[in-house]
Write a structure and sequence with these properties.
Elements lengths: L5 E5 L4 H12 L3 E6 L9 E4 L5 H8 L4 E4 L6 H6 L1 H21 L4 E4 L1 E2 L22 H19 L3 E7 L2 E2 L8 H10 L4 E4 L5 E2 L2 E2 H13 L5 E6 L5 E2 H11 L7 E4 L21 H7 L7 H12 L1
Parallel strand pairs: 1-2, 1-4, 2-3, 4-5, 5-7, 6-7, 7-12, 8-11, 9-14
Antiparallel strand pairs: 10-13
Helix pairs in contact: 1-7, 4-5, 6-8, 8-10
Bound molecules: nicotinamide-adenine-dinucleotide (NAD).
């Protein structure tokens, strides 16, 4: 354990940020949080405001060794509908924040990228050095920030680690993300709506595994720029996700309903990705990290946290 290291977490009130701050605090790190919402309950010091506010970022970054940048507008569909704001926050303000990290002498930047960056590539499982073909604006911003960080790592002494997360789920996630959404529906005897055939798959990754990987990145120091898939090798179709949850609520009256993409304001089919599976050997080798929580176990943990 490397206690007392000053760690800055942007987006600390969000789903991953909250889980990460609880975990790192329990390990003895000093946590400085920034978020536009929340109260920073797991932080040693909390700044309420945007990460790119000059006053906030300069104070928060002063003496910080490692920065986890999780603050972002999230949700592929939401980002598509708010393009000007998303370009502003997820790209322009993000790179400006990183430039300040360099000026303030931060030693390492850990930036939350996404498996969305691989687009609908059929070259599976996804490997970190593949040419990425993002479809959505959300993913295009992630790609462009990754490129900016590569330049920072080449031109300065700052080390950069980029986890590309694969469908993280767990306690405290926003209600519009699939696992949490399905649990809430089934708990309340409402039907689950699945777009298309339900055969589209994801590698749902439990947040407890993710924070474990993120902590390992703090002490990883071999290369100055490293992208790592942080995902589970368990792959589930949407149908399997729904059935796992229905199975854990045996008294629920909910059923699965199939709906067309694009109907009633649902996701456009062009934004959908059929199958998304990471190659995880890089993180296994250099971080000694492997996600071990399967979907049933993860869903049981969420149910326990809300009942
Ligand atoms: N959850 C996933 O499956 C997943 C997958 C891939 C990548 N990611 C990335 O991981 C990061 C965290 O995701 P999450 O699931 O915790 O999302 P989240 O929405 O729960 O958390 C994001 C947090 O960022 C904060 N935020 C937004 N704009 C801000 C600003 N300008 N200044 C300060 N804070 C701001 C929000 O208030 C929120 O608390 C994001 O960058 C997201 O793109 C998440």
């Amino acid at each position: 354990m490397e206690s007392n290291k000053k760690i800055v977490i942007t987006g600390v009130s969000g789903f991953i940020g909250k889980n990460l701050s609880i975990y790192l605090k329990s390990k003895g790190y000093q946590i400085i949080g920034i978020d536009v919402v929340g109260e920073g309950e797991n932080c040693d010091y909390f700044y309420l405001g945007t990460f790119n506010d000059k006053n906030i970022k300069e104070k928060a970054l002063n003496g910080a060794e490692v920065v986890f940048h999780l603050g972002s507008i999230v949700g592929v569909d939401k980002c598509q509908n708010e393009s000007a704001l998303v370009k502003q926050v997820n790209f322009l303000e993000t790179i400006s924040f990183f430039d300040t990290c360099v000026e303030m002498g931060v030693k390492k930047i850990i930036f939350s990228s996404s498996s969305e960056i691989y687009g609908n590539s059929k070259d599976l499982p996804y490997k970190e050095d593949a040419i990425v073909t993002p479809i959505s604006l959300y993913a295009q911003c992630k790609r462009d920030v990754e490129a900016h960080l590569k330049k920072i790592s080449e031109n300065t002494d700052v080390k950069v680690c980029i986890p590309r997360f694969f469908n993280v789920y767990g306690p405290g996630q926003r209600a519009d993300f699939v696992v949490t959404k399905f649990i809430n529906l089934v708990k309340n005897n409402q039907n689950i709506e699945i777009y298309g055939t339900g055969l589209q798959t994801r590698s749902h990754t439990y947040v407890g595994d993710v924070v474990n990987a993120l902590e390992k990145m703090i002490s990883y120091n071999k290369n100055s720029y490293e992208i790592m898939n942080i995902g589970s090798t368990f792959e589930y179709s949407m149908n399997e996700v729904a059935k796992t949850i229905l199975d854990l609520f045996p008294n629920s009256k909910s059923k699965i309903e199939y709906v067309d993409y694009g109907s009633n304001g649902t996701r456009d089919v062009f934004l959908e990705i059929d199958r998304r599976v990471p190659l995880t050997t890089k993180a296994e080798k250099i971080l000694n990290f492997k996600a071990t929580t399967d979907l049933r176990e993860g869903v049981e943990k969420i149910i326990k946290s809300i009942t």
